[in-house]
Structure formats: C-alpha cells, structure tokens
C-alpha cells in the first residue's frame, strides 16, 4: 500500500501532473498494488482494491482521466482472488499501452491540421497538444509556437523546454499577452482534463480566455484529448468539479505579510463552451465537440456511468 500512497501523494502535489500522466501513474500504481496483494479472502481483496481505487481517485477532482483510468484498469468480473487479480493486471497493462499509442495517433491525426509555416499558440503543458505540434515539426513543417507561462504553476516552462529540445521555434508569453498575440496565430492547440457530454472543455485555468480571443480573431481552436478524457457521468447530470488549489501557489504567506485579510482564489481549471471549439482530436479521430455523446457511448461505454 505504501507505494500506492506515494504515487497518490505525487499526484496530489503535482510532482506527477498532466491529465494523461496522472491516469497512467494511477493505473500503474493499482496494477503494482494488486500484483502483490496478499489475501485468500475474496471479500477482503475486493474491499482493499476498492479502497485503493478511492485513494487514487480522491487525489485530484477535475481530470476525469483519473477515475476513468482507475475504473478501466481496475475492472474485473470474477469470483476468486486469482481470477480478479489476473483481470486487473491485464486491464491495467492494456490501459497503459493504449494511453501511450493514443498519443501517437493524436499526433498523426492532429498534424494534418497544421500547414507548413503555421503559428500555434498552446497553454499550460499538454502532452497530447505537444504530440500534434512535434509530429507536424517532424514531418518537416516549419511551425512556430507561442507558449503561455500558465500561472501559478508555470507549466509553460516545461512546454518551452520540450519544444526547444525538439528544435521548434518557440516564444514564451505571459498569460495576459494572449489576446495581444492572437493576431499572429493560425491555430490554438490545448489539451483537456475533462470533456463533458455537451462538448464543453475543462482545461487549465485561462484556456477559456485563449478560446475567446481565438474566436474573436477567427483563429482555429483545437483540443487534443484521448477518449478517456471524456466524462461519462456528465451524461447523467453530474457537473465537473473545478479544483481549488492552495493559495500559496499564487503568493506565499511571507509576501502577503501585513495583509492577512486579503483572500486568494486559485481555481486550477476553467470551462470552455463547445461553441468556441472547432475540433477535438482523439486517437479515434477528429470530432466536432458536439459528438462528445457518441465518444462517451462508443469508447467508454455505459459501465462507467457511476464515476468520473
Ligand atoms: O494529458 P495532457 O495532454 O498531458 O495534459 C492535459 C491537461 O492536464 C494539465 O493539468 P495539470 O497541469 O495536471 O493541472 C493541463 O490542464 C493540461 O492541459
């Protein structure tokens, strides 16, 4: 259990971050836990596995990739410990493998939307969005990228490192320079933490500002998202919870100093309505956001209806 708790803590503190990475890390943690779980009682096995699943799911509330991964990796239909164990090991291994190949497919499909000489704006650090940009670059297209800083955690610094390591022409901007810069951009590409049944995109705080500015400037807006980032429970009316993180990420107590009454708000995500989204690139194809229902139905199935 200690290893699983360590992974949960790394997800909570964002040492492991990114909706896709936390999903794969959770699936791996569950697989390793189940592999060595010692008990001959099926009831005890079920209780312990369910407890482990909740520990992982409760680390971060917004990215649906996390509960989807835990449910897909941790599903079983068995009556004995060994049967259930072997099914979970197979399902988790399959989830991790599929998550990896999904990024390659998203790169291939999404790169078709970028032309030689295009300028892209991206936000935060999304492995799925970067897969598209890097694939286009590897195909020989000359792509320029504006990457936002993404306060407060500044994941934009990870993005510019990845892009410049790949040899891509990269410019860092502060978040408030998004609208000013949009006139130079052909396509915005961002990731996704959750996509709801009505095609709304829940992604890093500030994403909806990129979408608004893109809409105003008639710039394409694309989200790159594996199918396991669609939220089945929104089909049954649930709302996606927006994670509110520690105020210390915004400003330290020291710096606040003699203003103890000032309140800090630190929402980690925002919601972009489907009208502002041109395309969602998944490993199963590129869809308009209005097709979210079909993706949930065909790729996640009804068995996920109680989670996410
Ligand atoms: O799965 P990939 O595409 O890597 O990332 C998807 C999204 O996950 C991140 O969340 P955070 O930085 O963990 O809060 C960002 O919001 C990013 O757009």
Automatic annotation (TrEMBL):
Q: Which GO terms describe its biological process?
A: L-methionine salvage from methylthioadenosine; pentose catabolic process
- Which positions in this protein are listed as binding substrate? 17-20, 60, 203-204, 229
Q: Give the EC number(s) listed in the UniProt record.
A: 5.3.1.29
Alphabetical keyword list: Carbohydrate metabolism, Isomerase
The record's section on SUPFAM superfamilies has:
NagB/RpiA/CoA transferase-like (SSF100950)
A Pfam family matched in the record = IF-2B
Q: Where do the catalytic residues lie? A: 124, 193
Catalytic reaction equation(s): alpha-D-ribose 1,5-bisphosphate = D-ribulose 1,5-bisphosphate
Task: Output the Gene Ontology terms for molecular function.
Answer: ribose 1,5-bisphosphate isomerase activity; S-methyl-5-thioribose-1-phosphate isomerase activity
Task of the protein: Catalyzes the isomerization of ribose 1,5-bisphosphate (R15P) to ribulose 1,5-bisphosphate (RuBP), the CO(2) acceptor and substrate for RubisCO. Functions in an archaeal AMP degradation pathway, together with AMP phosphorylase and RubisCO.
The record's family statement is:
Belongs to the eIF-2B alpha/beta/delta subunits family. R15P isomerase subfamily.
Additional record remark: Reaction proceeds via a cis-phosphoenolate intermediate.
Q: What is this protein called?
A: Ribose 1,5-bisphosphate isomerase
Q: Which organism is it from?
A: Methanohalophilus euhalobius
